[in-house]
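Sequence design from tokenized structure. All designs in this work follow the same two-part layout: the structure record, then the generated sequence. An example of the structure record is given first.
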């Protein structure tokens, strides 16, 4: 087998993507995630794994629902192997997965379904340290919340992706303080984000990034575009999702012309460098990596007073926060920043400095390693 391969190798019905040989005496890290496609948890995972010392860790990623080849090749160049469980059909496939679990020193689960399965895997391999991420301040259903809480004792450590999520896990779900660790998953490589230089040329571009779903509240972003349609402001949304067609139809029906749905983009830093103001009207969030990335790009933020957005966007220092339904408040802040390039520059510079101090790749790796190397149960 070659030392490095850039194409997936299919074994049986389980896709296993090989990249290199195991390192003797390294920590076997098994990272389980729902899928490997563009998303906040996936990007954060990639930055984390790429930041680990490959002399100390052998990493295998298990994806429950497939992977995007481009995402893997661009974002995960250091991972030894990826097991795709989407089409496990033979005893041999099952054996490979069981072997990966049994040989792991640390098992990490990210996103809800993967976290529950990771806790079950910890029952199979009781010698492994089990760490499960939680990325949001809400659960989609009460059943999910109940199952998460019931199975929490199977985790040695629960990784909250932000301080607000950590407070909810301890306060509302009743998890013990010594089980929950706040590990901000952003891991921003600042060299990839060129800071924006703000000037007084128009029109003003308002950008937003995320899965087009109810959580991200892009309907209210459309309402903001309607409110500001007669002003020199253009809205651009990057992302796909279950509400994209609905939002597109609504935009066409009401005839608003100062908003664009761009779909996915290959180079997010390039998009952010074309934006003057970043807006995130989410109804609930965990860390919200896209806001942190926009801060890294030197953009002022106008966001919802929820989760990590409320925690990181200091009012009057790097942006403004409002209730998710306060369309008038959002528009007021956008107008103020649109008219004041020096304030945009000041807010953007402050935000980038804040990210460098709290959300760099170095910070992510250090805090993750401290969390997973706690004594096992």
């Amino acid at each position: 087998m070659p030392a490095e391969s850039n194409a997936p190798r299919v074994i049986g019905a389980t896709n296993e993507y090989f990249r290199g040989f195991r390192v003797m005496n390294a920590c076997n890290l098994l990272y389980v995630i729902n899928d490997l496609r563009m998303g906040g948890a996936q990007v954060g995972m990639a930055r984390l794994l790429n930041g680990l010392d490959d002399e100390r860790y052998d990493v295998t990623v298990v994806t429950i629902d497939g992977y995007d080849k481009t995402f893997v090749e661009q974002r995960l160049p250091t991972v030894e192997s990826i097991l795709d469980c989407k089409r496990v059909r033979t005893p041999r496939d099952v054996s490979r997965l069981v072997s990966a679990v049994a040989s792991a020193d640390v098992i990490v689960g990210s996103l809800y379904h993967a976290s529950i399965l990771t806790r079950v895997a910890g029952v199979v391999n009781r010698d492994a340290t089990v760490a499960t991420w939680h990325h949001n301040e809400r659960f989609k259903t009460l059943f999910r919340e109940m199952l998460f809480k019931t199975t929490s004792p199977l985790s040695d450590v629960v990784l909250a992706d932000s301080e607000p999520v950590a407070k909810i896990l301890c306060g509302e779900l009743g998890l013990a303080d010594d089980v929950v660790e706040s590990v901000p998953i952003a891991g921003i490589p600042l060299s990839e984000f060129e800071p924006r230089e703000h000037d007084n040329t128009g029109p003003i571009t308002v950008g937003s990034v995320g899965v087009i779903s109810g959580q991200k509240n892009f309907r209210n972003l459309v309402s903001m575009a309607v409110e500001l349609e007669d002003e020199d402001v253009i809205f651009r949304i990057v992302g796909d999702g279950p509400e994209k067609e609905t939002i597109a139809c609504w935009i066409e029906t009401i005839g608003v012309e100062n908003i664009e749905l761009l779909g996915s983009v290959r180079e997010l830093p390039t998009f952010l460098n074309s934006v003057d103001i970043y807006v995130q009207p989410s109804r609930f969030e965990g860390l919200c990596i896209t806001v942190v990335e926009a801060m890294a790009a030197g953009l002022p933020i106008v966001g919802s007073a929820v989760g990590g957005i409320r925690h990181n966007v200091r009012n009057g220092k790097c942006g403004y926060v409002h209730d998710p339904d306060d369309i008038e408040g959002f528009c007021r802040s956008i107008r103020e920043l649109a008219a004041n390039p020096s304030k945009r520059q000041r807010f953007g510079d402050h935000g980038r400095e804040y990210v460098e101090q709290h959300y760099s790749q170095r910070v992510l790796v250090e805090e993750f390693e401290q969390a997973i190397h706690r004594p096992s149960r």
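The first strand starts at residue 9 and ends at 11. We note this feature because it recurs in several other targets discussed in the main text.
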